[in-house]
Structure formats: structure tokens, C-alpha cells
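Recall that a protein's primary structure is simply its ordered list of amino acids. Everything else, from secondary elements to tertiary packing, is in principle encoded there. The following example makes that idea concrete.
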Amino acid sequence: MKRLITLLGAGCLSALPTLAAAEPKTDDPYHLQPSPNSTQDTAGEPFTDKFSPQAAAAYLDSRAHLVEKNCFACHSTFTYLPGRSVIDPLAAGAMETRVLLERFTAKCLDKTQLPQVKTSHVNQVRILAALELARHDAVTTGRLQPLTRQALDHIWTLQLADGSVKWIHVGEAPQAVDDYWPVGMIALGVGRAPENYAQTDMAKAGLEKLRGWLRAHPPKNSHERGLTLIAQSAIGGLLSDEERRQHIEKLFASQHEDGGWSLAGLAPWQRPDKQPLDVVHSDGYGTAFTAYVLALSGIAPSEPRLHRAIEWLKKNQRRSGGWFTPSPFKRDKIISNTATSFAVQALALCGEIQPRTVSAEEFAVAHAAAEKSVPPNVYLATDPDR
């Protein structure tokens, strides 16, 4: 089955395969309403015979703007672009998404157009758009585009006195439960921004405030510990060598015998419907996020414990191309989407996916094609079928 991922206003972004929302009752760990006709996005979905970056790419493409209504979301656009860019940063979907984020950002930076932007959580979306444009700049031209620089500079005007930013707290783990996620993502995006952006005066002042927030809020669980290690790897100045070692060892201490981790073992999250979370079985997000953190922190892929984690990821890709994770909120599809993004990023860091080298000329051609394919004046993506 196929449907169009359409764009707000008119036209279409691309025709992409839809993954069924169905979840057979026998395979649904949280007793959600099942469909008897599909196993996709369930614990019962078959595994691939062999790890396939191409299948992962197709899965990510199909989730590029999942459950987005008049908005860009943490669990779709902002997991899609960094994950898809690992496989091919010039893929049509990635470049079209970039064009949308550029147009959204340009509107927000123009005081005459900003009132027209009715997107939910505008400031939070502006922050993530800036960060993902910066990361995409890093893996394409290696140059910080002028619009990206402006967007990054704007982040610091939204920073609170304590170093954090006003965030979304709707209980939707892992991105919308506390302030650790945005702080970690800001550190990662700014730290990875090309042309030494982190050493500009605005960034240095903002990052020092960010470090202050992290120092004042030591991690209380493995997920916060992972985000702290992400920040340390990106901007430094947070942890001593011994503190870094202790955080890493605590992450390894919760590794399962099969080499993976469970999402529910990372933090004491609770579902709104009070259904229990599975802390026993390894899953996509728990393993992918932790492996990504460890690889980013300098653990060699040959280190036996990380090697076991990477082998788990390679063996547990589902036939649809993604990595299943039971939902910590209400919708299993959303967390599996995020899990898949982290899985391909972790596998790339460990040498299982070879990044594509991009020239400035190739980027320009791909950008021009994306500009042409996205209808004029369209700057948001939405899925009208949901």
C-alpha cells in the first residue's frame, strides 16, 4: 500500500510506502488495539536475513514526517534527517526535508513573516531545525550555510538564565519528558556545526551556560547519563576522565546477556495507561541509543561489549527495515522510528555503514532538485491521513 506524504498548502513531497499501523494482539506487549493482518511494528515482525542499510533507508523515508500535523516533530523529522543522512545525505527525502526546514527557518527569522507561522511549539522547532541543519551542513559541504548560522545564533536568545531552554513536557519519552533531551541535542548540534561555530563568542557564552545546567543537574538514570556523555563528546568541559569512565561503566553494567539494552531500563518512565514496560528484553531504542553514546564516547567497536551491541543491532533489524521498540507512551511506531535513526547512526560510528562523501557541486545539484520538487511557499510537512 502506498500513500502520498503531502505538504501543507498544496502539492506533494514524495510518494512513499506506508508501514501498517497494525499490531497483532498476540504480539502486542501493551495490549493495544491490534489488527490481525500485519506484524509490522510489533515484537512478532520477522527479522531480516542480513543487515541492510538500504532497508533502513526505506524505513526512514516512510517515516520522514510521521504523525506531524502543522508541525515538525522530534520523533519524525528530527530523527529522520540525522539518520537518513548517515546513509545518504543527498537522498531526495533528506534534501526535501532540508528545504522545508530552511523555509521554515527563514520565515521565523523574518519578523514580518513570523506571525504567519502557526506551528505548534514554534521556538522548540526552531531550535531543533537549527541543530539539524548544522549537522546536515557538516556531512554535506562541511560549510556552515549563512541561514544555518543565523538559526544557531537565535538559539542563544531562547536560552534561559539557568542554561536550559523552555521545552515540551508531555510525558512522551524519550524526547518530551524533561530538559535533558534539548540540552543534549543543543550540545551535539552546536558541537558538530562546521567552521568552528562553537568557538564564536555567542556560542561560547551559551555553551558555558549549558555546561552550568548539566553540572547543576547530575544524571539520575542511564538515559540522562547517555545524554550527558553525548554533550561531553560534543563540547567537552563537563566530565573528568574518571567521571566519564564511571558513566560509561554504568551503561555497560545494565547490558543484557544478548548484548542489548531495554528502553525501560534506561529511565523510570511510565505509560499514561499504566501498562508495564518491559525491562527484561532488549529492544531497538535501548540498544541503539546506548551503542551510539558509547561509540560517540570513544569506545572502540572492537571492545567486546560494544561489539556485542553492534552484533545485536545487525541481527535484530526487522523485515520492514526498522528496529522495533515497545512504546513508552501510546504509539509503538513513534519510538521505533527514533530507534531506527539511532541504530543507523551507531552502526555508522562503528564502521558498519560507510558515509558518502559529498562535493559542493553535488550538494548544489541535489538542493536545486529538492527546491523544485517542493511546491513554492510550502514550509511544513503534514500527513492528512492521521
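The beta strands are 2-6, 12-17. The longest strand covers residues 12-17.
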